[in-house]
Amino acid sequence: MTIYLDVVILENLIMNSIIIYVTAIIMKLKIKHIKIIISSLIGAIYSVASYITNVLIYSNFFLKIILSIVMVYIAFTPNNIKTLIKQTTIFYLTSFLFGGVAFALIYVIKPQDILMKNGLFLGTYPLKTVFLGAIIASIIIIVGFKIVKTKINKKDCFKNVKIKILSKEINIKVMVDTGNLLKEPITGAPVIIVENTALENILPKEILNNLEAILGGDFEKIPEEIKNIYISKLKLIPYSSLGKQNGMLLGIKAEQIEIENDDETIKKDNIIVGIYNKSLTKRGEYNGLIGIEMLN
Asked: What top-level class would CATH report for the domain 154-295?
């Protein structure tokens, strides 16, 4: 059987690129196409090298693990080891499913010339088989992960958040609310809703106790020194809910918020804290609401 190395490289380059791209879609990662091409090309060259040489090191299990980690790192450049492990795991799951679909298609097509060496599958099957396998596997993976992600358990609904305002910090528990699409109307900054009682350690009581008056433009009960510090940071946030069609929240711009999301900490700078003058829950399970977009 005649094997054309350029065809083998092209096939592996295509499959590797699609696997990396699907991994990025699942994990909602920003990607650069040049990084995907470089990463995929490294994998393709390794595949060819493992076929044309008789060096046993190319079939070494640990070398293949290292190759996968290198490919993932080049493609996504994760910030820490935990993220790298998570991305590599999804990369492997995607690869295994792609491999399963490819084997199934080869079984159906039953090409006359086919062989395998050092884990590399070679044959006379056309490139359209590669594309068809990639399309089927991509649909299965993306749909499957979307189904899984919709089944969010209770633990995933709550996040620990650190809020920093004028160098003062508090830590609160918030609930992820898919219906919280509030934005500050002028800047478009996302809004995190927080109970006023949870903000007592970082905001003056003169502001927290006079929210309705401030919303109405009455600052008489606010001392001059507090007005000078905080008035430029205050925002008016219109909102609608089941109980109130034309409501208004008083908001204040945070210097930074940090959200603990699984094994990573998400830092956001351009966030408005909307001060809610009531309790969000009777049992005190959480003190705030954040939109799901803040977790991206």
From this structure: mainly beta
The full set of domain ranges for the chain reads 5-150, 154-295
- Distance CA(213)–CA(219), nearest Å, equals 7
Return the DSSP state at 64: H
**What backbone torsions phi and psi does residue 197 show, to the nearest 5 degrees?**
-65, -25
Per-residue tokens: 60: 């070494």
Sheet holding 247-253, edge to edge: 234-239, 247-253, 272-276, 191-195, 288-290, 168-176, 158-165, 256-261, 264-268
pLDDT band at 193 (very low <50, low <70, confident <90, very high): very high
Measured distance CA(281)–CA(187) in Å, rounded: 29
In angstroms, the CA 274 to CA 291 distance is: 12
Tokens, residue 278: 């009531």
Read off the pLDDT of residues 204-249 as tens digits, 9 standing for 90 and up: 999 999 998 998 888 888 999 998 899 888 999 988 765 566 788 9
Q: Is the pTM of this model over 0.70?
A: no
Could you give the 3-state DSSP secondary structure of residue 274? strand
Q: Which regions of 133-211 does DSSP assign to beta strands (E)?
A: 158-165, 168-176, 191-195
Q: Phi/psi class of residue 56: alpha, beta or left (left: φ > 0; alpha: ψ in -120 to 50)?
A: alpha
Contacts by 77-81, CB closer than 8 A, 24 or more apart: 77/35, 79/264, 80/264
Q: What is the DSSP letter of 210?
A: T
Summarize pLDDT for 101-114 with one digit per residue, the tens.
766 766 666 555 55
CA 188 to chain centre: 21
Q: DSSP strand E in the chain: where?
A: 114-117, 120-123, 158-165, 168-176, 191-195, 234-239, 247-253, 256-261, 264-268, 272-276, 288-290
pLDDT band (50, 70, 90) for residue 67: confident
